[in-house]
Amino acid sequence: MQIKKLFLQNFRNYETETFEFTDGLNVLFGKNAQGKTNCAEAVFYLCTGTSLRIRHDKQLIKVGAETATLTADAKNRYGNVSVSASITETKREIRINGSKIAKNADLMGHINSVFFSPGELRLIQDGPDERRRFMNVSISQTSPTYYTALLRYNKILDQRNALLKNPDISLVLDTLPVWDEQLCKYASVIVKKRTEFLQKLAPYAEELHAYLSDNAETLRLAPDKRYEGTEEEIAELLQKRLANHYEKDLRLGFTTVGPHRDDISVAIGGMDAKAYASQGQQRTVALSLKLAEVQIFKEISGEYPVLILDDVMSELDLRRRKKLLEKIQGVQTLLTCTHAERVLYGADCNKIRIENGRIKE
Ligand SMILES: Nc1ncnc2c1ncn2[C@@H]1O[C@H](COP(=O)(O)OP(=O)(O)OP(=O)(O)O)[C@@H](O)[C@H]1O
Ligand SMILES: [Mg+2]
User: How many whole angstroms separate alpha carbon 260 and alpha carbon 237?
Assistant: First the structure.
């Protein structure tokens, strides 16, 4: 998978600009606050229809402008594909090869990307939300079925939670089983896909972590809850679990079991990474997870995703930087940094200097 061209108009601090990328390492460099992350964000947005740092799409529109337009010309295993987005204050439209898509799920899989920035330390340091987000974003890109199941699950979950707050207890108890059947139908899709995802991810991440840490540490990844069997069996199991928690759910006013409460346990040398690992160790774990994600995309779809490394080099020591550069051979990478020379050690790359929302020749 490769993005050949990226066109931006009134996107963040860009007025109009066209980027041309090579299939290897592309380095976006320049001083702080010039538009490097903005460019990386545009690529991620065209892959997933979302950005990790916005609440509203309108934040992406250049201040003072009405419409932001972004287009990526890319190549995937099926051929050339053009993905574009047009964002106004009130709506956005995404087109694939010129045809408007009806729902965000239709965007998934055209261009896949893995995004890594220092903020991804949250993956280790924060609560389960962040690790679920990681799985959701990653799995959705290769499985529209997962993405759709997730949207429906969340919707039914909201309705179930609203019902739990209803003071008419007998009505609630009568209605819950009906909601639960629907909820478990989608929950089982989510759980099954996550289980498969983690089974694939763990060995890659563990191996990458050993490589990046010179075999000094062992990483172990595992789901915090085990589910076995077919989707139907998982649905049945979850429905029983929900029924066992009626009393608690009613007391608390929300649903206390289900995939919206699941987590990944991350341990280094047998100790919980969040509680015991140093910042540097946590950073290496986060990087291992992200590089493992790159491998999984390759395993599932047959081709590497586009890897976006936003501002990560400055946080790694020299050995790890070099090891990282070795591991991304063959993967189209967009890397942002302030000083290209200091991080690249003469690696073959396409350097793009960015100044005040423009490419500087
Ligand atoms: N909607 C917007 N309209 C206009 N300018 C914006 C908008 N959103 C962000 N900016 C500006 O874009 C500038 C560049 O942001 P960006 O995050 O890309 O910087 P950067 O080059 O990655 O810098 P750093 O090295 O500090 O990470 C910021 O100064 C910000 O104020
Ligand atoms: Mg930045």
Answer: 16
Amino acid, res. 337: C
Domain chopping of the chain, boundaries: 1-112+305-361, 120-302
Q: Ligand 1: which atom is nearest the Cα of residue 34?
A: 21
Mean pLDDT of all residues in 290-313: 95
**CA-nearest residue, atom 19 of ligand 1:** 33
Residue with the smallest CA separation from ligand 1 atom 13 is 33
Pick the CATH number of 1-112+305-361 from 3.40.50.300, 3.90.1150.10, 1.20.1260.10, 1.10.10.60: 3.40.50.300
**Closest by Cα among 128, 116, 131, 105 to 50:** 105
Q: What is the CATH number of domain 120-302?
A: 1.20.1050.90
Mutate to test the pocket of ligand 1, among 32, 38, 55, 354 (most ligand atoms within 8 A of CB): 38
Candidate from 13, 43, 57, 342 with most ligand 1 atoms within 8 A of CB, to mutate: 13
Q: Which residues neighbour ligand 2 (ion) by CB within 5 Å?
A: 36-37
Q: Is 212 exposed, middle or buried (CB count within 10 Å of its CB: 0-12, 13-18, 19+)? A: buried
For the cut 90, the answer to whether the pLDDT of residue 190 exceeds it is yes
pLDDT tens string 21-50: 999 999 999 999 999 999 999 999 999 999
pTM to 2 decimal places: 0.92
Tens digit of each residue's pLDDT (9 = 90 or more) over 113-155: 999 999 999 999 999 999 999 999 999 988 999 999 999 999 9
